[in-house]
Amino acid sequence: MRAADEQRRDRAISAGVDRGEVACGRVAVDADGVREPDIADLLDARAVLVAPEALRRRRRGAEPEHRPPGLRALGGVYTYIVNSGLPKALIDLVFLRASQINGCAYCIDMHSRDLLKGGIAVEKMMLVSAWREAGDIFTDKEKAALQWAEAITLISETHAPDEAFAAVSAQFQPKEISDLTLAIGVINTYNRLSIGFRRPPGGEPAA
């Protein structure tokens, strides 16, 4: 079992996941070495606020760790998205834009760091929220994805307008549009989990 865990960590590290994050458990790694958000940490952060003594007992081993099956299933959807064939940088741009709209500091911090690790220029990352005025810094495909991310994230206001759907349809195949829309839905869910469980930027639970 230990050898399998070590092999899994090695695959994650070779895929670009920070060794320290894997070693200290700040990220969860699936069987393919793909990083997914550690929802248990989000639950820990919320528990600090509502039941600190129960959390301390669990951490001492007095109570078994409990990860709701629904949250594990959400992690599976996240893993599907990152393996869907959509470019990782595009996924991170969409994740960042949705997180900016929702005001999720934890996710903004995480996906900004992911973009920087992936080699994005700082100047480009700083203009994600103003991509419409950024000239040709963003490709047509990135612009369409960002427009769609805004439309779906603000669905109660935009109702996914025909203009946004036409733009994304011109740049992506039907399966890609489906995967992209799923990605937007997933990051909106993670935003709500992170905000609801009081997860601050930097990865440390709220005190």
List keywords for this structure.
207 residues, 2 strands, 12 helices, 2 domains, globular, AhpD-like, 2% strand, 66% helix, mainly alpha, two-stranded antiparallel ribbon
Question: How would you sum up this structure in a few lines?
Answer:
This protein is mostly helical.
Written overview of the protein:
With 207 residues, the chain is mainly α. It folds into two domains: 2-79, no CATH class; 85-196, AhpD-like (Up-down Bundle). It has twelve helices and two strands. The protein has helices at 2-14, 19-23, 39-50, 52-59, 69-82, 88-102, 105-117, 122-126, 140-153, 155-158, 162-171, 174-196; strands at 28-29, 35-36. It has a two-stranded antiparallel sheet with strand order 1-2. Helix 3 packs across helix 4 and helix 6 packs antiparallel against helix 7 (105-117).
Can you tell me the CATH topology of the largest domain?
AhpD-like
Strand count, sense and barrel status of the largest sheet are:
2 strands, antiparallel
CATH class call of the largest domain:
Mainly Alpha
Number of helices: 12
CATH superfamily of the largest domain: AhpD-like
Count of extended strands: 2
The CATH architecture designation of the largest domain is: Up-down Bundle
Order of helices and strands: HHEEHHHHHHHHHH
Topology:
Elements: H1 2-14, H2 19-23, E1 28-29, E2 35-36, H3 39-50, H4 52-59, H5 69-82, H6 88-102, H7 105-117, H8 122-126, H9 140-153, H10 155-158, H11 162-171, H12 174-196
Antiparallel strand pairs: 1-2
